[in-house]
Specification:
The chain has 379 residues and is of the alpha/beta class. The chain has 12 helices and 16 strands. The protein has a 7-stranded mixed sheet with strand order 7-6-12-13-14-11-15. Strands 9-2-1-10-16 form a 5-stranded parallel sheet. The relative contact order is 0.21. Bound molecules: dihydroflavine-adenine dinucleotide. Dihydroflavine-adenine dinucleotide is lined by residues 8-14, 32-35, 40-42, 57-61, 217-219, 234-235, 253, 318, 347-349, 355-358, 360.
Length: 379
């Protein structure tokens, strides 16, 4: 093997490490990727019929307040000025999310000043010193009417569990904005890669000292690699150790994609469905992510429905469940990881943490600076 470093996984964490080590340290980097494409969950591809860019693993919005991450990402792509907005349908009405002044006015059916809205929400909130479950926590923050409309059914579908049986810690807060600012993120920098995610990700990997082997599972070649050179591992933590401490639990998503024969299906990129009797949680319509792409067809659109459920071992792991049993297991896996010589664990799967893209890039830049660069003799 002609490599100085092996990176397992070509998501944003793995590609950031590979790019830095190849370009900055002059290392030869071998990237192993189980899937048949690079980019991890940020990967996108044009729909074959319409050419509309589809975010294959769910809609990905880039947002960060970290100037270093924004500068780094900007080396590989320019960004459009897209700012994300989300709406929720409940009982035939549409409300903007996260909850803001427009949501509260629409929900209570009248014009309210910020102060009046604040008083109204506070009047309905039922403070509890130690909430016993998610429902009690949510009601203590925003009151029962808003909870029952916008949170209860959606959360039950996301977790396939009654919110009264979910731990209160799942939500630390429910952001309520007492302004008409309906943007989903309030980060300093936001946008979408102008020519798509995959062009961005491919540019990161485009270096003569980086070799990407797609369609290669690390565990099929592990015997030939282990111990030879340092490894940065961004696959599932429990799988690395043969699930010795038990399985870490995840939620997975199922997606159905269709081309709808209409110029515009729902008027926005992401619509949440809060009614418990609608089986999907969200509908994504990708054309709205790129209003500047005038070449998108005018007679059809790509629509993707999202369904949520607990992941079995062979499903794609999407969101860590992080139940008390998981947290206990995670501590034991972290100890095993700490003692594993020459292997650096990173990324969302390798640390069992939900990471946004900017967090994955930021964490990879830190690993590069603090651990890999010193290891290879540069400071
Ligand atoms: P990622 O999962 O992307 O990459 C890991 C790679 O390792 C995968 O390609 C996998 O195939 C590979 N791998 C695993 N095991 C392997 C093995 N044994 N051998 C070889 N390869 C192996 N973020 C954000 O900023 N804005 C957003 O809007 C969203 N939206 C969003 C929606 C949904 C549904 C999800 C699940 C996630 C998001 N994200 C997001 C998060 C974003 O996807 C996340 O930050 C990045 O995927 C993290 O990159 P990683 O490299 O850590 O993991």
């Amino acid at each position: 093997m002609n490599a100085d470093l092996v990176v397992v996984g070509s998501g944003l964490f793995g590609l950031t490490v590979a790019e830095r080590c190849a370009r900055d340290l002059g290392l030869r980097v071998l990237v192993l990727e189980r899937r048949d494409h690079i980019g991890g969950n940020a990967y996108s591809a044009p729909d074959p019929e319409t050419g509309i860019e589809v975010h294959v693993y769910g809609t990905h919005l880039f947002h960060t307040s970290n100037a270093l991450v924004w500068e780094y990402a900007g080396r590989f792509t320019s960004f459009t000025p897209y700012e994300h907005r989300v709406y929720t349908i409940f009982k035939g009405q549409v409300y903007p999310m996260p909850i803001n002044l427009a949501t509260i006015c629409a929900f209570y059916g009248r014009a309210l000043s910020p102060g009046q809205a604040r008083d109204l929400v506070a009047r309905h909130a039922v403070p509890v010193a130690e909430p016993r479950n998610l429902e009690e926590k949510a009601v203590s923050l925003i009151g029962r009417p808003l909870y029952e409309a916008l949170i209860q059914g959606y959360t039950a579908k996301q977790w396939q569990t009654d919110p009264r049986d979910l731990p209160a810690e799942i939500i630390t807060r429910l952001p309520v904005r007492y302004t008409f600012d309906g943007r989903y993120f309030d980060d300093t920098y936001q946008g979408l890669p102008s020519d798509g995610y995959t062009a961005w990700l491919e540019r990161m990997a485009d270096h003569p000292r980086i070799e990407v082997r797609a369609g290669t599972d690390f565990f099929d070649v592990r015997d030939r690699i282990a111990g030879a050179v340092p490894i940065v591992y961004t696959g599932p933590l429990d799988r690395y150790f043969g699930h010795a401490e038990g399985e870490l639990s995840w939620r997975t998503l199922d997606f159905t994609v269709e081309v709808a024969p209409t110029p515009d299906y729902q008027g926005t990129a992401v619509m949440n469905y809060a009614d418990a009797d609608v089986p999907w949680t969200r509908v994504h319509e990708f054309r709205h992510l790129h209003p500047e792409r005038h070449w998108y067809p005018r007679d059809s659109t790509v629509v993707m429905r999202e369904y949520s459920r607990p992941a079995a071992r062979d499903d794609e792991p999407y969101y860590p469940v992080n139940a008390p049993a998981d947290r206990a297991r995670l501590l034991r896996y972290r100890e095993l990881a700490r003692r594993e010589p020459g292997v650096f664990f990173g990324g969302r799967l390798g640390t069992y943490a939900y990471l946004d893209m900017h967090m994955a890039i930021g964490a990879a830049l830190s690993m590069y600076r603090n651990r890999l660069r010193p290891l290879f003799g540069r400071r």
